[in-house]
Amino acid sequence: MGVPASPPGTGVDLRFLRDDGHLSTAMGRIVAGALPPLPPTLAGALVAGVLMATGLDHLAGITLFAPVAALLLSGVASGHPHDGRFDRLVPPLLRATEYLCLLALGYGSGVGGPLVFVLLAAVALHHTDAVHRTRTGLRPPARVMRAMLGWDGRMLVLAAGGALGWLPFAYGVLTGYLAVLLVWEATTSWLAAPIAEAEAPRNESGGVDASTT
Amino acid sequence: MRVSPSAMTRIGLVLAVTAGVWFTEGGVRGAVAGSLLLGAVVLTDVLAGRVRAARRDRLDVWLALVLGRLREYAVYAGLAIGGTAAGVADAWAWAAGALIAVALRDSVAAARRADAGEPEWTPESGLPRPIEAVDPSRDLEDASPGDTSLTAELLGREAPAAHGTDGTGEPDAAPGDVGDGGTASEAPAATGGGAALFGIRTVPKGAPWPGWAEVRSEALGEGAPGSAAPPGAAEGTPGTGGADERDPAAGGAGAPRRGSGPPRALLARLAAFPQAARFAAVALTITIWDARVTFIALIAGCALAAAADLARRPDDDVGR
C-alpha cells in the first residue's frame, strides 16, 4: 500500500483496493513490484477454490493454512503498480477468494451461521467504507487499513484459530474486533474531518476551502 | 419543515431494519409487510435525492453509501432468520452467499473505475531495483537485451542474425511467396507483423485490445464502439465521484434523464442491478416463493451485473 499521492485525490487505486495486510505487503517488498499481479493471484485463487470445493471441513490442524498460503502467492506481486490491462481483475479475485474462504471455513466447521454472516458483513462494510471514504476525499490512512489486518491477516487469524481448535472463538473475536474498530475509526475520523461539499473545487494543497456562506 | 438528506438516510435504515424484522416472521403476512416497507425505503431514497440536489456534503454521501449497504445486510439477516424458521435448509449460508455477491458486484464496479497504483520502486525510494530483486546474478551495468533469440521468439519476429534472411522472415514478404519453406502457422506471423501468434504477443500499454472493438460491436449489433456504454449504465455503478447508485434508483421511478431512448437507459440501469432492483427482486420472490429463491435470485442478478461490468471494461481503457 503506497503512500497516497501528494494531493489526497478522490481516485481509488488498485493497490489500495487489494487491501493487503502486513505479510502480503512485506512479501511484495522482496521483488520490488517486478512481478505482474494477475497470474499469481489466479493461481492462488484456483488452489483455494479447489480446496473449498473439496470441503474445508476435511482439513484440520495445520492444513487449514493451505488456502491462505496459496493466496499469499499474490502477496509477492503486491508492490506492482497494477497497470496491466487485466490487473483490474485482481482486487475482485482476492475479495472473492477471501469471502468464500471465510464462508466455507466457518460453515464447514460448524461455526454458527449468524456469526459467519456478521463477520462477512463487517468485512464487506470495511471494504465499502474504505472505497467510499477515499472517493469523498478522506482516504483512510495506511495505519488504519493495516489495523483491519488485510485479507491475509484475517484469513491467517481464522486459520490459526482453526488449527488450535478454537474456530468459533476466533470468528467471534475477529468479528468483534473488526466491528469495533470499524465503528470507532469511522466515528473519530468523521468527527475530526471538516465536512465540506463533496464536489467542491480543491485548492492547491488538495484540501477544500471552508465555506464562507 | 426541512429534512436533511442524512436524516432521510437514517429513516431509510430504520425502515429497512423494520422490514427485516417483518421478514423474520416467514409467513405471507410478514413477506407482504416487509415488501411494502422495502418500497418505502426506496421512496426515502427518491426523496433524499430530491433534497440532496442542491447541496451534498461528503459525510452525507458516505453515510448514504455505507448505511445503504448496512440496511441491505440487515434485510438479508431478517430473511435468513425467517427462512430458518420456515424450514429452509442452510438459510444463513444462502444469505451469506447473497451478501458476498453484492459485495463482489461493488468490488468489480470499484475496480473498474480505479486507477493504477504508484509503483513500489522509484529512483528515490532506496529499495533494490526490480531487476536486481528478481535476478541478482545480472550485471546491473549491462543494459543489453538478454537473449536475443528469446526476445525474437516472444515478439514473433525473426532473430536478427540467427540464420539467413530467407523469404519467410521478411516482414514485407508477400503472402504468396511463402510456399517454399514457411508453414501455414508462421506465414501470418511474418506478414502481419506479429498480428497472429496469438498467445504470446505483447501490446503496448494503454493501447486498446486489438480486435476487441470489432468483436464487441459485432456481438452487440452496434455501430461505433464508443457508443456502447450509455451514460446511464456508468451511473448505475456505485459512486461516480459522489453520485451513488441511489441516483439511478431515483431516476428509475421517474423518467430517465438522458440516454438513447427510455427503454434502453432503463435496461442499462437494470443491468447494473442497483439496490432498488435488488429490493424489488426480494419483494417479488419472498412474497411468491421462499427465502432460498430470493437469495438465489440475488446471487444470479449480481453475477450478471458483475459480468456485464467486466465485459464493458476495455472500452474505458483510454483514460489510463
Question: What are the SSEs and their pairings?
Answer:
The complex is a heterodimer of chains A (213) and B (320).
Chain A: H1 14-18, H2 22-31, H3 38-54, H4 66-71, H5 90-108, H6 113-135, H7 142-147, H8 150-163, H9 167-192
Chain B: H1 5-23, H2 28-52, H3 58-85, H4 91-113, H5 130-134, H6 148-155, H7 186-191, H8 212-220, H9 231-236, H10 246-253, H11 262-271, H12 275-288, H13 291-312
Helix pairs in contact in B: 1-2, 1-3, 2-10, 2-12, 3-4, 4-13, 12-13
Highlighted features:
heterodimer; A: mainly alpha; globular; disordered N terminus; B: mainly alpha; DUF5941 (chain A); transmembrane (chain A); transmembrane helix (chain A); DUF5941 domain-containing protein (chain A)
Structure description:
The complex is a heterodimer of chains A (213) and B (320). With 213 residues, chain A is mainly α. Chain A is built from 9 helices and no strands. Chain A has helices at 14-18, 22-31, 38-54, 66-71, 90-108, 113-135, 142-147, 150-163, 167-192. Chain A is globular, with a radius of gyration of 18 Å. The N and C termini of chain A lie far apart (38 Å). Chain B has 320 residues and is an all-alpha fold. In chain B, 57% of the residues lie in helices and 0% in strands. Chain B contains 13 helices and no strands. Chain B has helices spanning 5-23, 28-52, 58-85, 91-113, 130-134, 148-155, 186-191, 212-220, 231-236, 246-253, 262-271, 275-288, 291-312. Chain A: This is DUF5941 domain-containing protein.
